[in-house]
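INFO batch 0412 | record 1 of 1 | parsing
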Amino acid sequence: MSEKTDRTLQKAAGTGVAGASAPGEIDRFLGAAKQLAPLATGQAGRLIFALDATMSRQPTWDLACSLQAKMFEVAAGTGGLAVQLVYFRGLMECRASGWIGEPQRLNGLMRRIACEGGQTQIHRVLKHIRDEAKAVPVRAFVFVGDAMEEDVDALAALSGELGLRGIRGFLFQEGREPAASAAFATMARLTGGAHARFDVNAPGSLLDLLRGAAAYASGGRAALEKLTGSSPAVKGLLTAMDGGRR
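INFO prediction complete | emitting tokens
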């Protein structure tokens, strides 16, 4: 991604809170992450990994850090995986890394980021995905969050654009907040993807969902189908993508 795009996503960054990651440190790492790793070139599938990093999300952020390497592992047999991290937090801070082809680099970036209070910025994430897909092929995106504080019609319009481009959305929700459930389900349906819930106290539930999304990003539907026999959660993703007709 260009530096211009990164600045556009960031806009007015929050002032930070005690214990938060220093902006300069994140800037340096984001700059280094723009250099594509070998795995992120060629035929590797591209997955945008977007997370809500507002204050309530710290336990889930930490869990995602511990699980992200498994996404690369499951994709290794179907061409590999290149991941771009997108997150929002604080006062209108929304950032994206470059494409990363190594789990160690993604983990290093995620561990430099601390969650901060703020409102959801899902519309900015969807706009970024749309714009990024104009430059490179993107097969799927994951969004992990627990809330939605925006205009659902605007989110639906952007999701419809992504669906027309063939970009499948996997919306993974912690908890059962009604507005988030309705919005995430709508976004998933309009992209041709899937909405699923997970429990942060049961790490295996999110792990299976991330593995399923990574399989789809790297190898398409056939790769996702190969995982259904070993995971009811993955089978649920496929069922949701088919509109519940399985």
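INFO post-check: The radius of gyration is 16 Å.
INFO record closed
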